[in-house]
Amino acid sequence: MEKRIKQEIQIPKGAKNVDVRMINGKPYVMYDFYFDHSFKEALEEIKGTNEWLDKYFPVVHAGTISLDDEIFKHKPETVKQAFFKQRLEHALNMNIYNFRAQVMDPSLDKDGNIIFKAGEKPAIGQPTMWWDLQLQHYFPQKRSRMGSPNQRIIFLAVLMRELVNAYNYTIEDAWRTICDQSREICNCSDTIHGKKHMEPTGSRKIGQWADLGNVYKITKHNEKSFALEGSNYNFSGNFCTLSFIIGDHKLGNFHKSSLAWIVMDV
After folding, report:
1. Mean pLDDT in the chain?
2. Which partner for 210 in 88, 104, 113, 155 could form a disulfide, CB atoms 3.0-4.6 Å apart?
């Protein structure tokens, strides 16, 4: 059985347990859909393999991030850097376990299913609650969900370390790239070698991670609180840096250029 969420008031043949909900003033139909058994088995078999997980949801080794590392001993040079370090210290105090994170932004297939495929349009335009409900049923075996702001800051710390260790950034430049001006590695309005419009999924890889900027990422504090994070092609790289974050009270219509940042258990 596969849980589906649709924005049209159209009930497909085979739908069961239909439930209509209002999300951001629009009607959504939730229903259970029963696939052909052999198709469903094949889908889950592919999705559940370690090869699939490692390809599309690599492990973020949160336990390897420490303030004793030379990179994170860096004394902040700007307000944005100071805020990043404050957030990182808080996240480390929360003892975040290792987790898996999306390797690129998700897309939607013609039936509205979440997919991960390079060269597609990012799955922008879905309300926050659509993502929250949909991800509960995407890969429940690994607790698929929106990542938290604490997980996001750990992820950025891992990325910062990769810039230093694998891309020969100085520690100072890595901090500036994550916190102060992200146009070197993100698609922003003033990006380097950019086209100043939304790019397809799988763009601008750093190591195994793609789509670091381009569109906002939605993270989840708790059941009632969400945040918008990261760079966006509509804004400059020094305004919407990778460490940029705003609370859900200011989200408004930003779902038109944002999507969920998806994580799973290891």
Report:
1. 85
2. 104
Angle at alpha carbon of residue 144, lines to 104 and 107, rounded to 5°: 35
Exposed, middle or buried by CB within 10 Å (0-12, 13-18, 19+), for 65?
A: buried
* 240 closest CA partner among 183, 199, 160: 183
Task: Find out whether 136 and 39 touch, Cβ atoms under 8 Å.
Answer: no
pTM exceeds 0.85:
no
Assigned token pair, 236: 């400059």
| CA 113 – CA 25 distance, rounded (Å) | 22
Instruction: Give the pLDDT confidence of 11-69 residue by residue, as tens digits.
Output: 544 455 566 666 656 665 554 444 333 434 445 556 668 889 999 999 999 999 999 99
Domain assignments of the chain as residue spans, ordered by start: 59-101+144-265
Distance CA 39, CA 45 (A): 10
